[in-house]
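ARCHIVE CARD
SHELF: 3
SLOT: left
DATA:
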Amino acid sequence: MTVYEGAILTVDAHDTVARFLVEREGRIAYVGDRLPEEFRDDERVQLGQGALAPAFVDTHQHLASFAVFNDGLNVSSARSNAQIQQMVSDYARHAEGSMLLAFGASPHSVGEGRLLTRAELDEACPDRPMMMVKYDGHACVVNTSLLRRIEGRVGGLRGFHADTGEMNQEAFFKTSDYLTGSISLPRLVRSIQRALDCLAARGIGMVHTVSGVGFAGDLDISLETWLARSAQAGMQVRVFPQSLDVRTATRRGLPRIGGCFATALDGCFGSRDAALLQPYEGTDDRGVLYYDDALVTDFCRRAHDAGLQIEVHAIGDAAFEQATRCLEVALSADDARGRRHGVIHACLPTAAGIERCARLGIHLPMQTSFIDWPQEPDAYLATLLGPQRAARLNPLRTLWDAGIVLSAGSDAPCTDPDPILWMQRACNHSVPAQSLTVREALRMCTYHGAWVSFDEAERGSLEEGKMADMVVLSGNPYKVSASDLGSLKVERTVLQGRPYAGQTQGALAAVARGAVSRAKA
């Protein structure tokens, strides 16, 4: 039994701040201002100037992809393509595996103002196949060694550019499938182990992963499903298969479906394939709406009738309209509200779509890291969309005041899974009137995340009887100015009452064996 004394940020219905919390056998035995006599002799943790809060929830992440990229080369800090070339050259000398991977390239964070070309990637890595994924996860550049291997698979697909080595849209997805198909099971297990440890170090105790990104036999879905059921070291994993085939979820006994890739309705701004109602600034191009309404509505009906919770990717306003319009056609208001369907990203919502979300109870897993994002700066988005339309991006205050449940996700590996950053950006919106309060931002990152996956009875707030999933913060966010939220640190993550100590290789290997045997069956 452990007694925590200090600022206890419960994130309950009243945002109560208590003085004491008692953990017993993994659950919260008491929360309040006066410590009962029966607990007075128990081990005590003094929080000092810090605070205890619920563990954070990442409601949109590509766990298997993040795991693989987390073990690769991150070039997001580079400020020139020459620097990226040097990073690639150094990495290639010691990296393991038959194929190399880098991530985070952006034309907006380097002096040249463009992506590295195939020829430049060849200079840095001439002999081994290499794929450099763009920051938004929707495009990549390949070197000649890799191009030779995939040209027969991707040549002729939309988005194939042999001259520059850049792969977009269908060509990118097929290239990504080739990469994931080359990863061995032991390597994937090790990568997921390290990724979960990384998440816990950031205070994340639950992750909603969208899976199905080209691994043979949907191995990532099977592996993550078994990992979720084993609840290693207290970490909670909720799996959304990225598929339009309802059976992908039902045959695994999963209660939810959706995400990006196959269930993405459009692309993204950086690749100019986010679907817009009006053209990109100075062009006739409205982006790409991947499916027509009939297909999306049919998918929503089938998934809903199968008892599944649905999430779809929509970044542009045309895609957001389609998502909310098709959910409205497919479902009655009462049915939709009880199922907690969601629209991921929702970067450019429409007034009509916002009204539908509020009426149907559609929640929005959003990425506040996209606000003033160095890899895709606000100034760049203004050139794509025009200043007035860019000012309507990620309107947190408008959505919150409409009564829509907002949760926070990283979209990792696209952005770093950093809940402190999520809060800081949510409270310091580039359009100040769209900022949330600190208390709202903490609720967005904790309780709402648990609510999204129907876990709010057990997690998401610090209340008596719930699981003791908690983070110790270096300071009290309620007493820090919004502009200083980024200075907070996660000092300790406690899951099911125990300080997180990492996964064990043996346990994960057992999970992997179970996943593979079930997949074969």
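SLOT: right
DATA:
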Amino acid sequence: MANRSRRVVPAGLALVLVLVMAGCNANSQSTEPTKDKNTTALESVPQGGTLHYLSRRATESFETANAQMVPTSRLRWVHRGLTSWRTLPDKDTTLVPDLATDTGTTDDGGKTWTFTLQEGLKFSDGSPITGQDVKYGIERSFAPMFQGGLGYHKTLLVGGTDYDGPYDGKKLDSIEVVDDHKIVFHLTRPFGNWPWIVSMPAFAPVPAAADTEPETYGEHPVASGPYQVTSFRKGSQAVLDRNPNWKADTDQTRFAGPDKIVLDMGLNNDTIVQRLIDDKGEDETAISNALISPSQFQRIESDPSISGRMANSPSGYFRYLAMNVKRPGLSDVRVRQAINYAINKAELQSVYGGPKFGGRITSTIMTPGIPGYTAYNLYDGGDTGNVDKAKGLLAAAGVSDLKLTLTYPTDVSAIEEKEAQSIKNSLARVGVKVELKGLDGGTWSELVSSADGDYDMTTNGWGADFPSGMSSIQPLFASSEIGNGGGNASKFSNPEVDAAIDAAIAEPDLDKAAGMWAAIDKQIMEDAPVVPILVQYTQALAGSKILNYFIPAYPPFANELVVGVDR
């Protein structure tokens, strides 16, 4: 299937992706404040106050048709999905019903999925939320004007590849609305992760009658979540107030503490972080998506009053070195294994900020927090590498005087150049000469996603769109993802792995599928098409009056739906 996950690049050392929640009104129950910012249990938050969100984006939108945000993001202040994610600081993320009464049922092994909506749900305008609204919301995501969102459903729904949305009057028959509360999805193949897919932005309900200006609908959407957009100035500010028709007892994942949310757009990144560090006035109740620079980390770490407001991710993004197995110098598995032994991962870890802020050294493809993740190390060279083992494998392969190219993007951050230089130094220790080729991001992306890219190795990062080995492994290693914009940068193609991936994708028992993905992880690493380097951490800084603030193992940024304001 088509690749829908996304590459993760280092921009600074970490993400300050902290956000907050969605609201309730008379339906909510008063609770005592949670004083522990990095709480170890998911707790309710007090009602009231104003949450401020400081965004470095030129503009924000609450459009669902082309969004890539996970279900714990600010988009979900306004919109609900059929399912949602429950996160805890010390447990794996779980899937729970949202608009639906359960997480979906299938009676044919995962090819057909049925969901039933809760009774009595209403939009912010007072109209009922129906299966037809869910169907329309999904259909509009197929319109050409809404490209770039999370689009797993576009290749999975029968007829999806030939469908261009509802604006010409056409419907997608594979989304079957049985009645106001029952909706059935007909897929092209068995797909066990469909309950996760319906948590994605495109599955938010949209009443067709309100979609009179599709291009600007995201500025004034009809809300199904606890907040509604009451003011929107593009590129400047959005104001969200409580949705009076949202019912707390129908929602398992939103605490909806603040009475109001003010979202300021287009702010300077470093200025945002400095404002959060200074923690004055309204910034005491602020969160942000700004990136923290290394110099700012030093200031934060040196002051407990600031570091105590920073959440650290226990897991993160997969950072790795991809080796193009189609290239003559890397076609022998022993050469690729030698490179796995040669890399000084401790030095790379220091490039990213060290073990506290940069990330943990890894030897697997899946990361902690993804179901099925199992720690193992097929090429244990210690953190600094094993030169003798690497040289021995190169000699066994009959390789000497090996010359390789390593490409990387130059316009993302200085870290990628330092990362490439470190890899070059590691391989020089075992007699492999590396030529570095820095490219602008667009040229780099086109090169590594082509079928016959002229490069030997490239550095890369990856983040799963939902917690499954499918989202971690399939986009990077399935043969179908070679070329045409796919994410298989190592050009790895193994029929046995492809068959195992297809079987795991089709498995509707997600616990069983998790074990299958764990086996595939090791099966791929036996062929050594990549060198796993780091689980790249993220950090998030908040104002001193933000409550219930933590980053779970997955996704590696703060859950914006459970944060409160201490008044």
